Amino acid sequence: LIDDNVQEAGPIASAFFILHVMPLLSAPLALAIVTREKSMQMQPLLILMIIANLFFDWLLIPRYGMWGACLAILATFLCTIPFRLYVTSKLVGGVNFPMTFFLKIVAVLFGLGYVFSLLVEEPGFFALSGLVLVYLVIYGGMLRGLRLLRHEDVVELREMGFSKLNRILNVFVAPERNVS
């Protein structure tokens, strides 16, 4: 964005973005735990995740630098997700992973990201800021317009009773269709 030295950060930033899609797998698990008020029972697992991440950081960053940091995040996730799924299923009585929801969100994120990557080759700060705002508006519109978030996807969140959260959900959750 600024000069040739910064261009090296592009692929690494892209990798970190892709890695940040992983919370789509973890967020439903965490919300189920919070909703059922079982957070304290997850503390040993959190400690396991921290230890695993520190180990992979120690192992990979000195050898591979920033790419090692990306690999450490991925390795931590892949090594701990089976344990997280098992513990969560025991605490909340099963894990029903919304694979269709996950795939729809990832497809929209990657599709939009690809289209926006073609729009501007080397945007300046203000152009990039404008692109981010346009991206967020289009993404929000797609969440609602393509009915990516449905009422049944957010029932437990609504039941938590946070009025501000419910107002935000009202913006992004498509109205129910009347099937008569």
Structure report:
- α1 runs parallel beside α4 (66-92), α2 runs parallel beside α4 (66-92) and α3 (43-64) packs antiparallel against α4 (66-92).
- It contains 8 helices and no strands.
- Helices cover 72% and strands 0% of the residues.
Q: H/E element string?
A: HHHHHHHH
Structural class: mainly alpha
Largest sheet descriptor: none
- Which word captures the global form? flat
How many DSSP helices? 8
Mean pLDDT: 75
Brief rundown of the structure:
The chain is mainly alpha-helical.
Question: Secondary-structure blueprint of this entry?
Answer:
Elements: H1 9-19, H2 23-35, H3 43-64, H4 66-92, H5 99-119, H6 125-145, H7 155-159, H8 163-172
Helix pairs in contact: 1-4, 2-4, 3-4, 5-6
Describe this protein with a few key phrases.
180 residues; mainly alpha; 8 helices; 72% helix; flat
